[in-house]
Structures are given as structure tokens and as C-alpha cells.
Amino acid sequence: MVKIEQITKVSTVKHRYCDFCETKLNSNAVCVCCKKDLCHNCIGHDENDGGDYYYFYCQSCWNKGEPYREKIKQLEKEIDILSDEWLKECNS
């Protein structure tokens, strides 16, 4: 006698919700700083660096980052100046 065993596969669908307003999510927006899931209404800022992906920030993290973003801009300008001086030195 042959014993036949039936295997049943059960799938679980997990829905994601915005960590701020608990709206059911249809996208994969996640704050790059605090890693919280964001709905369209709770995205404080988004930006694209020219690549394939956007960077999303919740409003809280975006506000906290203001002094850091200003300092980063200043440092990037200094880097550009130093790079130009280096290039000028090599070509003189």
C-alpha cells in the first residue's frame, strides 16, 4: 500500500502601514535616517541625486538635518575649491 501525503502551502500577506499616520502603504518610501515607513502625505522631503532612486525623509529628520545640510554644503564648496587648486597646480 502506497501512502500519499498532501502538502498545503499557506501564504501570508503582510500589509505595511505608515509609521506616522497608519495609512496602508502602496509604495516603499522609507526615511533614510530613521528607517520609518512613509506614506505620500508624511514624506517631509525627497530628493534624487540623478540616480535610479529617490531619498525620502520624514519631516522630523529633515528638520533635524538643517544645520548638517548647511555644513555639508560649505564643505562641498571647500572641496571644489581645493580640487580646482590641485588641478591648476598640475597644469601650470
Characterization of this structure:
The chain has helices at residues 59-64, 66-90; strands at 43-48, 54-58. It is of the alpha+beta class and 92 residues long. The chain has one domain (15-92). The protein has a two-stranded antiparallel sheet.
Give a short account of the largest sheet: 2 strands, antiparallel
Helix/strand/pairing class, anyone? alpha+beta
Estimate what percentage of residues fall within beta strands.
Answer: 5-15%
Count of individual domains: 1
**What is the count of DSSP helices, taking H or I runs of 4+ residues?**
2
Rounded to the nearest angstrom, the radius of gyration is 24 Å
**E-strand count:** 2
SSE order, one letter for each helix or strand: EEHH
What share of residues is helical?
A: 25-40%
Can you give the mean pLDDT?
Answer: 91
What overall form do the CA principal axes indicate? elongated
- Strand order, largest beta sheet: 1-2
Distance between the termini: 92 Å
Summary keywords:
two-stranded antiparallel ribbon, 34% helix, elongated, 2 strands
Short description:
This protein is an alpha+beta fold. The chain has 2 helices and 2 strands. The chain has one domain.
Draw up the topology in text.
Elements: E1 43-48, E2 54-58, H1 59-64, H2 66-90
Antiparallel strand pairs: 1-2
